[in-house]
Design brief:
binds iron/sulfur cluster; 39% helix; four-stranded parallel β-sheet; 395 residues; single chain; 3 domains; Rossmann fold
Amino acid sequence: MAEFSKFEILKEVEILLRSRDVANLLVNCIKKLCEKISEDVRIMSFCGTHEWSVTNYGLRSLLPKKIEIIAGPGCPVCVTPSYYIEELIKLSMDGVQIYTYGDVFRLPAVKLVRGAKSLEDAKALGGEVRVVTGLVDAIELAKNCKDSIFVGIGFETVAPGYAHAILKDLIPKNLKILSLLKLTPPAMYFTVEKIDKDEKPLSGIIAPGHVSTIVGAKAWKKVAEDFRIPIVVAGFEPVDILMAIAKILQQIISGEAKVELEYTRAVSYDGDLRAQKLLSSIFEAKEDAWRGIGFIPGSGLRINEGYRRYDAFEYFNIEELRKSEWNYDLNAGCRCSDIVLGRAKPTDCKLFMRVCNPENPYGPCMVSVEGTCSIWARFGAKEFTDDILEELKLR
Ligand code: SF4
């Protein structure tokens, strides 16, 4: 048998995962499974990258009509409260150097703060804001600089990197981290629990693959068991997602509701135990606000007591957003609240591509590459193109 290098095997796997033939086989299998199910099937792809794959590869157009794929709240930028952006705008204008990711830079706030509605505006008005690709960049730039903040936004996938830098004391004394990190398992539980009785029920969930590399497939067990919902942890190639859909259908047919692992090449049942230990040694989980959703118990990571010297909340006296002051957090007319909870599609928003587009984002879901509105705007979803064809009277 010919010897293959690791690289060659990976290349072969990649070709297989994007193979039209394999995808067609799975689509046929999905169609056959669907014939055995009488009710409509509503599947939430929790993660923004899954929504990207579903839309970018046009997977919705391949599926039987009775299968609806809806997006979930898995975009950390979309769910970061406006309040923290407003606080950062103030600090940047008071001369504190802010280091932030490019999508957070453009994230629109609700309130106008000293003439600015985003960190991008603040920079244009003289605020000290700089876009970085990550904490490593910020650490380099902050050396020998003034008081600075790195805006730490993300889910469990980026958190171990921040924890490692703190544990190894790699961060200059003048640089503090504003940890706005969020945990996804409590958010998934909350999202499913929040589904009203008069809403269409959820038939299955495609659980986030990246996050699961850290938390493991076990993290979704409680949701599957408590709400009797089939859950499949999937990778991000078209074949991964089609396979996950087929597995969910199989569970529906056999009356099961368990967590299955499709993304075995990257995820284990227990996850990365070292990373989990690292996170619990540096951070503490707290109730946290999700933009457009509300306060979710145990869903935010803040730097714990032992490492407060790295904490921007502590050093700059930044107050946490209070429940009494939180009010959906969205600009008038923006339906991001419904979109991140899977209750509406971007095309249900009257502002989509009229007032709000990737060049001029009006709401938070239009900013990040993982935001559902941004994905639909950039890659066109079936419903979106249908709308345009109808407007142009071409169908
Ligand atoms: S299109 Fe814009 S305004 Fe409408 S829901 Fe999406 S982000 Fe909000």
